[in-house]
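Page 37, top half.
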Amino acid sequence: MGEAPAPSGPAADVGRWFSTGSRSADTGADPGDHVFRTHARDHPWGPADPSLYGRLSTPEEVLGALDVLRGGPVTVLTGAGLSTESGLPDYRGPRAVPRTPMTYQEFVRSDLSRRRYWARSTVGWTQFGAARPNRGHRLLAALAAPLEITGVITQNVDRLHEEAGSEPVVDLHGRLDVVRCLDCDATISRDSLHSRLLGMNPDIAARLEDLARDAAQAPDGDAEVDRTSRFRYPPCALCGGMLKPDVVFFGESARREMVADAFALLERSRALLVLGSSLTVMSGLRFARQALADGKPVVIVNDGPTRADDRATVRVHGRVADVLGAWALELGVRDHPGRHRSR
């Protein structure tokens, strides 16, 4: 299997299902606005102090935040906290699982790292790929009209906003359901690659259900898939190049067009609403900072601390779906029916 040259292009090892990095990896990233450069060693992805979570804003505070957003237009920025009720783990909550994400440099430089990644993510895809939008996703889609939402910028890679009916959606960190060739830029679906991976690794395929069940309970989601040096993965069917999930790894740059689209949404808005993000990495924090610099109100809804709490115009504590539900009740709207997923 040929080695593809290390490219300069885009794509996050996301959630405990993809805890595939080594603990000694270095991002090797140059500083820059577009680089997803906060490393797990600096901001560990694991359980936080439980005392920082569970605080609830009063009903008056919740409706006060809605008053700030009335009269739109509003841009929404979302993080992992919006997808936890869909069964996808967050990164830093009280029940988060300690993990070390694989860096872009590890993935492109090492065949063994790619074997490790694809072996463990093959097991993880069983649950990740089955996730469906939760009440929070549907409520956000339903609130699009009354709040005059210009669009959703999401740090998540699960495509649940689109499936719930939100539009437009800027997938800032890419999509995990797409795989891209780093040589010819061709894409294939993750489901298609999943079938190929199982066919090339019948021992994993035979134990997939048990491995996936163990992975859901293991500290890092890897279960018994530690011996991965013999795992086989295919090259690009078109050019023989290196395949990689179309998501932004640590040490890699987000696609410039995605960043530009996100800032364009913010520019057309009067306010920014942050939902379910700790804003720990600059990739998301920069939008809150830009909105504040432009004199736009920033409303943050999250269960747990965020990196912009001290500067937020209004800070609402609680579960995102509960807060959105209160707003929907006040505005007289119902959950969005969502869209049928085509697979």
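Page 37, bottom half:
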Amino acid sequence: MIRSLFVSHGAPTFALEPGLAGPALTRLGASLPRPQAVLMVSPHWQAPGPVVMTTPAPATLHDFGGFPEALYRLQYPAPGHPGLARVALECLAEAGWAATADPQRPLDHGAWVPLGYLFPNADVPVFQVALPDPLDARAAWELGQALAPLREQGVLVVGSGSLTHNLRDVRWHAAEAAGYAGAFAGWVREAVTAGASERLLRTLDDAPHARRAHPTTEHFLPLLVAAGAAGHACPADWIDGGTEHGALVMDAYVFRDPSA
């Protein structure tokens, strides 16, 4: 049984350039039991507290600039799921989060770009929960825990971020990956696949090159949301997504029921 996912969405051009990660996500999506809805947590929607998208038919937001025109023509017309979004609001309130609803929010690229590979037919309902700002590692985990009961409603919780995310190090035509990015990703892989929850929570303090891999934390925290939604000491399967543009590690993790 799949409990939750973490996916790396990299640069917006991932939507046009699948690399290693795109086909891997498509294979993963094809292997999953069809969820009732997907709940996405993305760093490209942040708010002072958790906000839940209750939009019935969310638009596709092209929240970036300076990219090829073909990218702006892409649409991901998946329906929303206001009913399950309201259940998410209830779960958050029960866990002590002051959550609010947004009935007009579109899907940002941190959601629709990886969903375009996971569920390319856009036929699975999707809604988002904003990433609270500010948020630390422990609180990100607790946000995931608050969303965990949605699994019983058939909701797949997906944290979308980037295993590494230093835009200053991006080289669009780089042939080799930066060594620090691989070292950081390897440390995370050991923690996640072992289900070492406390070690994972200390990643940004203890992992090699953590501050270079993540000068800001918003692209790492969705991994902790996904891990929190899976449960304490829940190991995950690693999906190798390769490294794009020299510095963006595109790994994904599948958190499964350890008793399955």
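Margin note: The chain has a mean pLDDT of 96.
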